[in-house]
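Risk mitigation, structural track. In case the binding assays with iron/sulfur cluster fail to produce interpretable data, a predicted complex structure has been prepared as a fallback.
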Amino acid sequence: GVGTVMGAKNLKALAIVGTGRVTPHDPKALKAAVAEQLEWVKANPMSSVSFDVMHTTGTIAGIEYGNSLGTFPTRNNRWGQMEGFEKIASSEYQKLLTRKYGCYACRVKCYCGYKVKSGRYKCVSVGGPNYESVWAFTGTIDSPELEPTIYADTRCDDVGVDTISMGVTIGCAFELFERGLITTKDTDGLKLVWGNHDAALQLIEKTARREGFGDLLAEGSVRMTQRLGRGAEAYAMHIKGQEMPGYEPRGLKAQGMNFATANVGANHNYGYASQEIYGVQVPRPTDPYADEGNADITKYNQDVTAMIETGIQCTFYSICDWITPEIFSKLLVAATGIPEHGDVQHMWKVAERIYNIERAFAIREGFGRKDDSLPQRILTEELQKGPAEGQRVRKQDVFLDQYYDLRGWDRSGIPTEKKLRELGLGDLVSDIVK
Ligand code: SF4
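Fallback model:
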C-alpha cells in the first residue's frame, strides 16, 4: 500500500499546515446530523457504554473482556484464554496512565499514554499500548506482564515496526522453538520459552537492525517459516500474508471469516463483527459459534466499513455502534452538498463498489478462493482453555459459497461480469473475468 511506496522512497511522514478554513456545504444541517448522532449514542445502551469505556481506558478494556469470552489468542493461537490476564487488566494500566488524548475534535479521545517510572523497562509511551499491542506482546508468548509490554510497544514505535506483525512472528518463533524446529543455534542463544518476555524484547531489537536471527524475523511469519521449511509453515498465523490480530476466530466465527475474506488480509479494522463481540443487534443478533449462516453479517460489516471510510471517519464509530448508515449519509450530504450522498441505498452501492474494486485488484494480482482461508490450525484443531474451548471452524467452504453468492461472485471468488456491470464497474471486466 501507500506505506510501502513511502518506505521505498525513504519517506517517513507528510505534514501539512493550512491557513484557510474548511466550510461545510450546509452548517445547519451538519449540526442537526451531529445532534442526531449524539442522541443515537445516548439512547443505545451498548453505544453509550462503549463510548464511556473507550473514553476512560481506550481499547485496553478488551484484555479482560476478550479473556472472559475465551477469544484472547494465547500461545500462538492454541489457547483462548491466558492464565493471569488480571495482571494486565485495564485497571492495572490505569495506575500508570499519564495522559489521555485523541484525534482532532473527537469527543471520545481513546488514546492513553503510560509511564514506567524506573527499572529495566523505564519508558514513556506516546500513545498506547492499545488492546492489539498488549495482546501482541502478552498472549502470543503467554506472558501476562505489564511493564515489559509497555516497553515493547514503545520500542516498536521508536523503530517503526508494526506491533501485531512483530508480536505474532515472535509467537510463531516461540512455538517453533518448543517443537524443536529451531534451536538456540538459530536464535543467537536465546531461549524462546513461553513467558520469556526479555527474549521477545531482544528479538524486537534484532529485527529492527536485521541482526542474526532478527534478519529472518524481519521477513514476517510467512517468509520466515517458508525459509525454515521442515513443516514450520503450519505455525504461521496469517491470512494472505498478514499476521492475524488478537481475536480468536474459533470463538468468533463471523469475525474469523471476515479475516479470511478481507481483501487486505487478516485485519481487525475492516468488517469488525461487533454483533458477536459486543452483542450489537444491527442488522441482527448472531451466534458467535454458528458454523454457517453468518455470511450476511460478514458482508454487512465489510460494506459498512467501506461506507464509513468514504467520510474519512474513524472505524471505531461503526465498531462501537456510534453511528448508523442513515446518520452517516446525512452527515456526508451536509458536509459535501452532493445530493446522492443523502440516499442511503446509493451509499450501500458505493460501499459495494469499493469492496469489488479492491477484490478485482486482488484477483488480478493472483489471489482467489485458495487465499480466503483461515490458518489450518483454526480449521483442524479444537481451541483449548476458556469458554470457547472445543470450538473450531468446521465449515469454511460452506461459508465461502454463501458469502460469494451474496456478493454476486462465482464460486472461485471472482466478481461476475453481471455484478461488475451492475455496480458501474464494467471497465474492470476484461482484467479479471476469464
Ligand atoms: S477518532 Fe477514533 S481513534 Fe481518534 S480519538 Fe476518536 S475514537 Fe479514538
